[in-house]
Amino acid sequence: MLDQITGRVRTGAYGPDPASLPIALAFSTVQAVRHGGRARGYRNEVLSLRIGSAVGSCAVEPGELPADTITDCVGATVGELLDHPLAAVRVAALDAYLGHCRPHGPVHGARRFGLPAGSSLAKSRLRASAVVGLLPLAAVRRVLVVGVVNSLLEQLRSHGVAYLACDLKGGTTEWDEPVHTDALAHLDDCDAILASGMTLGNGSLDPLLAHARATGKPLVLFAQTGSAVLPRLLGHGVTAVSAEPYPFFWLDGGPSVLHLYGGAAR
After folding, report:
1. What is the pTM of this model?
2. Distance from chain centroid for Cα 16
3. Residue 266 above 70 pLDDT?
């Protein structure tokens, strides 16, 4: 699907020629966190590219980006970066372009969901409430969660909804449940899918889309990676998206915003 959206960008379906738009700023954000009261922490690294006021992002494994990636991106056009050998650069460039041409807002089908100022854990839990609320919870027995976020699992538990946790890193959840590394092996064991936007960057989204289209199962995406890209998949296997462009909720304690597409209005 990423190639199809990129093809539409190249033919002008969403706005100006990507070869006419240079990247003004490129940067990476590295974060480590361990919420108070939680037994485990985690790290994030995100590549971001800026066009005007729009910032496109793609999460990567910490330390994965070559040292010269950011320098290579600055001054290059979106058209050039859509052909970059690194998938993270291609995704961030596409995200920046679509964020510039199709900004989040009611005109493009988004509902604003404000996260008030608070601790990182408080904001994480409120975000999780909004994301899980995009699932048809009354009709769901077990959710395949691809990209483990303990606040999301906590929300599902609070609704009495079972889940299977999947993440390429493996390990265990906060409740010592196993985290499966092969999400595709468990697709038939669940009746809904909740997946991170990181699936766009690591190439694992297409099989989830194909399964959702073939079975009619709800597929909800929570996206910092590709937040402007993934709403383009609504109606093509995706039923709802929580889009969270940079700056992300975990960057500071001030208020921040999610943009919700599809699902039930809140």
Report:
1. 0.94
2. 25
3. no
